[in-house]
Design goal:
Largest sheet: 5 strands, antiparallel
CATH topology of one domain: Immunoglobulin-like
Order of helices and strands: HEEEEEHHHHHHHHHEHHHEHHEEEEEEEH
Bound molecules: iron/sulfur cluster
Strand content: 5-15%
Helix content: 40-55%
Oligomer: single chain
Shape: elongated
Number of strands: 14
Radius of gyration: 32 Å
CATH class of one domain: Mainly Beta
Number of helices: 16
Length: about 450
């Protein structure tokens, strides 16, 4: 009989290894599986994020990989957009956008990112599915772990680790496929001729296996900086997972339908048993809580069996719980100064980036004076300067550019490659250019612009 099938009158005690702080004692949290509304959302987020992650490197655009960060060639492809290091401003804009979005999202919805979309949570969830499929649910895993080593245990544990390692390697392979054309990597698999990429595939593969298979909640509890600084973005109107102590206390075991004078919490411990970070939300909001909602699903199941209203544990805000905001109108917490401020700045940054990208010219040129060559007279009595010009073509098609110089009378420009240069698609071309002018042309121009009476 599983814990979820247990009669309501027989409460589920938290497993012994979960008492105290297992992570601090070096034990791994082995959460019980749970089904429900929020569990379905977590499954959906795993599917969506992993379809994007594993699928995007295989997409093609105009005969090349659609999304590729080609560090060697210093070109970054995003569908039709090709960026060069000179477009670093867009990367800065993207980082600012991500930071502002995180501030806004955290201020409104707390750590929903951690519970549903963070790679650590998503991969831990996938590794847990594999573990449960092979070893069974939390109690079965603990029983197996407590046994001495025997052939069956070796086979079970070995197959679990083999599948984890394969998934980790595939994740490392996919990650590297964002930086090196993935079809090229795929073609190298039969011969294992990966070159330097092999190190990075193994590196990321190992850390996926280690973080999601072994470290799990310890990353969230002890390593993730987001958990540390999120409190500055929280306030009494931030959506958090809350235990309704006013309704739940005093807690206590009782039979279904029994009028015991107790609160709604039957002290079954199911909310603790399913928690991936091993905490008891009834003690209040804790830094370890990643807002995954597993305890909400667990408690709702218990409430259903006890024929009591759901929502003893729920997403809510401190102000709603204390009656400062009307119940059921939690969304009014959106109209706060910090939320409006974050939203306005975020919209301004995103708007500026979109406009800038829409108006972006595929032509760019860097002109550098050749420092090692001074101005010199030519055979026909003119003055000559040497420039080095780097012409960028950020278009997906070759382009031709005509060299001209303007600004002074008699100014001419000459290059060893002629007056017209052709730059291949998504590329740049460097050439040397001689700019010549009649002596005194600068003085004539200065004289034309001189203000009468100016003695300079
Ligand atoms: S809060 Fe809900 S799930 Fe947790 S112990 Fe109480 S009744 Fe059980
Ligand atoms: S307390 Fe609830 S919401 Fe928080 S991490 Fe544990 S199960 Fe998830």
């Amino acid at each position: 009989m599983t814990d979820t099938q247990r009669p309501a009158a027989v409460p589920v005690a938290p497993p012994k290894s979960r008492r105290g702080n297992p992570a601090l004692r070096g034990l791994r949290v082995q959460p019980h599986s749970v089904s429900g509304w929020f569990a379905n959302w977590r499954i959906a987020m795993v599917v969506v994020t992993q379809l994007v992650f594993y699928g995007v490197p295989w997409l093609q655009w105009d005969g090349r990989q659609a999304v590729l960060f080609d560090l060697g060639a210093r070109k970054f492809y995003f569908g039709p957009l090709v960026l060069f290091p000179q477009d670093f401003i867009y990367l800065t804009g993207l980082l600012i956008t991500c930071a502002l979005a995180l501030f806004l999202f955290t201020s409104v919805a707390g750590r929903l990112w951690c519970g549903y979309s963070c790679p650590q949570t998503v991969y831990t969830e996938m590794f847990l599915w594999i573990e449960r499929a092979i070893e069974g649910d939390g109690p079965a895993q603990r029983r197996l772990s407590a046994q001495a080593w025997h052939a069956r245990k070796i086979a079970i544990k070995g197959s679990k680790h083999a599948i984890w390692a394969t998934l980790g390697l595939w994740t490392g392979f996919t990650f590297v496929g964002f930086f090196v054309p993935i079809q090229q990597l795929w073609a190298a698999i039969p011969s294992f001729e990966f070159g330097g990429e092999a190190f990075w595939i193994l590196f990321y593969g190992f850390f996926t296996y280690y973080n999601a298979g072994w470290l799990r909640e310890k990353i969230c509890k002890f390593m993730c900086p987001y958990a540390r600084f999120q409190s500055v973005m929280f306030d009494a109107d931030t959506l958090i997972v809350t235990y309704d102590a006013a309704r739940g206390e005093p807690r206590g075991i009782r039979k279904k339908g029994e009028d015991s004078g107790l609160g709604s919490c039957v002290d079954c411990g199911f909310c603790v048993a399913v928690c991936p970070t091993g905490i008891d939300i009834r003690k209040g909001l804790q830094i370890e809580c990643i807002s995954c909602g597993a305890c909400i699903d667990a408690c709702d199941q218990v409430m259903d069996r006890m024929e009591m209203p759901r929502g003893l544990i729920r997403y809510s805000t401190e102000n709603v719980l204390t009656g400062k905001r009307p119940k059921g109108r939690w969304y009014t917490h959106l109209l706060r100064t910090r939320v409006i401020g974050y939203s306005a700045v975020l919209l301004a940054v995103v708007g500026a980036m979109v406009v800038s990208l829409a108006l972006r010219d595929p032509f760019r040129v860097n002109v550098m004076r050749e420092a090692s060559v001074l101005s010199r007279p030519t055979a026909d009595g003119r003055i000559e300067n040497l420039y080095r010009i780097k012409v960028f073509n950020m278009d997906e098609h070759p382009r031709r550019y005509r060299l001209v110089a303007a600004g002074l009378p008699s100014l001419t420009v000459a290059s060893t490659e002629g007056a017209v240069v052709t730059v291949p698609a998504i590329s740049f071309h460097t050439l040397e250019v001689y700019v010549r002018v009649d002596p005194g042309a600068g003085a004539q121009r200065l004289a034309r612009h001189r203000v009468p009476g100016d003695g300079a």
